[in-house]
Design goal:
With 394 residues, the chain is α/β, with parallel strands linked by helices. The chain has 2 domains: 226 residues, Rossmann fold (3-Layer(aba) Sandwich); 142 residues, 3-Layer(aba) Sandwich (Rossmann fold). The strands form 2 sheets. The chain has a 6-stranded parallel beta sheet with strand order 3-2-1-4-5-6, sandwiched between helices. It has a 6-stranded parallel beta sheet with strand order 9-8-7-10-11-12, with helices on both faces. Helix 4 packs across helix 5, helix 4 crosses helix 6 and helix 7 packs across helix 12.
Length: 394
């Protein structure tokens, strides 16, 4: 029996923890010992409560990097997480090393966890990665970019991030990374997405897209407000400035909305009070809700997108950060949803809702997506991931 440590360091939402939960369940069933380190123990507690493994707080960056421009590539994202200077990175690497010294894992698997991988390399531990195309860049190529920044700036940022990581590796006598992408990939990168949702357009023909991994079980059974009108499932957060405007537009267009708003579930005042909106007190079973829904409103996290598209349900997407914006852009390009990134709370949200409900092309595109991936099996995917990880343990 091997000890496999699964870790999540960067990024928000429940998708990272959900992917690690599904993988942990398969690894346990195959006889391995599993431990977890998580960026957020509070929001993930209910999701992981039935997973009987040690769950530890991951060493994470808690400080602000002042004066940096909007991030144009992954290197500049990592500048905000300790990768500007070796002196900033040393403490986090030391924290991960101490964690591994106590746990003694045989294999480290990171989900957006570059510093966890860096510390594993410092200690000669084997490591793998699982995740989507945003933080799994193609090996052997410059990091993908998304801002209209100069190529010189992006190349300089990439070189600086690589130099910072290699300076720490040198202090421990560990082999240097040859390219910046290696900081995020580990010994075995396992790309968990579909080509249609992949943020990167520069992957080679040998790329293996394994499909998204997400929690497809648990959660409340859906209950919809009484009456007539389209059923809309909404997973929105109070931190988005237009979440109330979107909900109000759905109500005004005659929809019946089942909404999971974490802020409301935690006791905050509902953003829209109407008999046409029912607020769930805990997360809802997405497969059950989407099987009945006519539309899904969300922030374009990949787990929600994937399940909505598998159900053939079009999307109203309110991205909150870069990764979600790129997700929303990919779905909008496929015709299966509307990317509302440029809308403000004062925009005509009713017109957008009306368009999504009345224009059959959105539903047709979502149903076409579902038909192309009809054979996708979440459990088979996680068995495949476990088998691939076992190759590093052989």
């Amino acid at each position: 029996m091997s000890h496999i440590h699964l870790c999540w360091e960067l990024g928000g939402g429940l998708g990272h923890a959900g992917r690690l939960k599904m993988l942990a369940q398969v690894l346990l069933a195959r006889g391995h010992r599993v431990t977890l380190s998580l960026r957020d123990l509070m929001q993930t507690h209910a999701l992981l409560a039935d997973l009987d493994v040690p769950k530890l707080q991951a060493p994470v960056w808690l400080h602000d990097a002042v004066g940096l421009p909007p991030s144009g590539n992954l290197a500049e994202i990592l500048f905000n997480c300790g990768y500007l200077e070796p002196s900033a990175l040393r403490g986090m690497v030391a924290g991960w090393r101490d964690l591994y010294a106590v746990l003694q894992p045989d294999l480290v698997v990171g989900d957006f966890a570059p510093t966890a991988l860096l510390a594993a390399r410092c200690m000669g531990l084997r490591c793998a990665t699982v995740g989507n195309g945003f933080y799994m860049p193609p090996a052997g190529m410059p990091l993908p970019s998304w801002q209209q920044a100069s190529s010189a700036r992006l190349a300089s940022s990439e070189a600086r991030m690589l130099a910072t990581a290699n300076a720490v590796l040198a202090e421990y006598g560990a082999p240097a990374y040859a390219q910046a992408a290696e900081v995020l990939l580990g010994d075995l990168p396992l790309l968990c997405t579909w080509p249609e949702l992949d943020h990167c357009d520069t992957r080679g023909p040998q790329t293996e897209w394994l499909g998204p991994s997400f929690v497809d079980q648990g959660g409340l059974a859906p209950h919809w407000p009484a009456g007539d009108g389209p059923k809309v499932f909404a997973y929105l957060k109070g931190s988005h400035p237009a979440h109330a405007a979107a909900l109000a537009a759905l109500v005004d267009e005659g929809c019946r909305v089942l909404a999971y708003v974490p802020d409301v579930a935690a006791g905050a005042r509902p953003p829209v009070l109407s008999e046409r909106v029912l607020y769930a007190e805990t997360p809802v079973s997405l497969p059950l809700a989407l099987a009945e829904a006519d539309l899904c409103a969300c922030h374009a996290g990949e787990a929600t997108l994937a399940q909505s598209l598998l159900a053939g349900v079009p999307l109203l997407m309110l991205p909150s950060h870069t990764e979600q914006f790129l997700n929303a852009r990919r779905v909008a390009m496929s015709g299966a949803g509307y990317n509302a990134a440029l809308l403000t709370p004062a925009s005509d949200w009713r017109a957008v809702v009306r368009l999504l409900l009345d224009d059959g092309n959105y539903r047709a595109a979502a149903q076409g997506f579902a038909a192309r991936h009809q054979g996708f099996d979440q459990r088979q995917l996680n068995q495949l991931l476990a088998q691939r990880l076992e190759t590093l343990l052989a």
